[in-house]
Amino acid sequence: MTAVPHTARSAHPVDPALLSRALETAGRLANDAAEVIAATLGGEPGDRSGHAVKANPFDWVTDTDRTLERHTRRVLGSEFPGFPVVGEEYGADRGAAEAPMRWVVDPVDGTANFVAGLPWCAYSLALVDGDGPAVGVVADPGRGQIYAAARGRGFRANGVAVPPSPVSRLAGALVCAEDPDAGFLARCRAAHAGVRVLGSAALAITQVALGNAVAAVLTRYHEWDVAGALCLATEAGALVLDRDGRAGPMPADGMLVVAPQVAADVCALWAD
């Protein structure tokens, strides 16, 4: 039987001055990234110069990925010395796994969309401690939005507080999913819920924070894909659950980010 907690997982408070400084720096970096991504989205027609692949032909890496991560590391190294950085393109600084706090960055989440000129890609940055993301920003250049949150301080879009979602039921709602299997799609259809695959884990989770979707289901993920958006979602009141409905900052076997009102229903669809 799937157990669903009734409240979000509690987290320890962080020094308010550190939160403020981290949030300001992360916001500046997100604005920088949004400008660069918007300017380089898709490149010139037919141009793939500077674009390479990693594990397979769909695992893109671009000059924009590398440039933004290097810029992020330079700024954080200068303003937060002693805080290691974990990034998609250049890996983890020495000691990151043991550090009490670390920065986690994905310079372009949804790189395949970016290469294709599809504006569903994002910059994600988070300050993470043992309880999960304490500060998170997600830049969504395609919609001209900078989303930001800090533990205990709520969630804002372009500086404006985002109201709680009025969601009350699964039927008629949208679920974002990355790599969903056919069975999950069929069960959502039977429950009269629509499934959307955006190609960006950060933006999928952000839709839950915004109330545009009731859940985001990630079959697999990397920390850098989700850390920034998880801060947004938890500050918006969403739950972060594993396949058994247990709360945790980074579940090992997939992740469900879900509005509490429909958590039991979505857990049942995912775990079936």
TrEMBL record:
<protein>
    <recommendedName>
        <fullName>inositol-phosphate phosphatase</fullName>
        <ecNumber>3.1.3.25</ecNumber>
    </recommendedName>
</protein>
<feature type="binding site">
    <location>
        <position position="106"/>
    </location>
    <ligand>
        <name>Mg(2+)</name>
    </ligand>
</feature>
<dbReference type="InterPro" id="IPR000760">
    <property type="entry name" value="Inositol_monophosphatase-like"/>
</dbReference>
<dbReference type="GO" id="GO:0046854">
    <property type="term" value="P:phosphatidylinositol phosphate biosynthetic process"/>
</dbReference>
<feature type="binding site">
    <location>
        <position position="109"/>
    </location>
    <ligand>
        <name>Mg(2+)</name>
    </ligand>
</feature>
<dbReference type="GO" id="GO:0006020">
    <property type="term" value="P:inositol metabolic process"/>
</dbReference>
<keyword id="KW-0460">Magnesium</keyword>
<dbReference type="GO" id="GO:0046872">
    <property type="term" value="F:metal ion binding"/>
</dbReference>
<feature type="binding site">
    <location>
        <position position="225"/>
    </location>
    <ligand>
        <name>Mg(2+)</name>
    </ligand>
</feature>
<dbReference type="GO" id="GO:0008934">
    <property type="term" value="F:inositol monophosphate 1-phosphatase activity"/>
</dbReference>
<keyword id="KW-0479">Metal-binding</keyword>
<dbReference type="InterPro" id="IPR020550">
    <property type="entry name" value="Inositol_monophosphatase_CS"/>
</dbReference>
<dbReference type="Pfam" id="PF00459">
    <property type="entry name" value="Inositol_P"/>
</dbReference>
<dbReference type="GO" id="GO:0007165">
    <property type="term" value="P:signal transduction"/>
</dbReference>
<feature type="binding site">
    <location>
        <position position="88"/>
    </location>
    <ligand>
        <name>Mg(2+)</name>
    </ligand>
</feature>
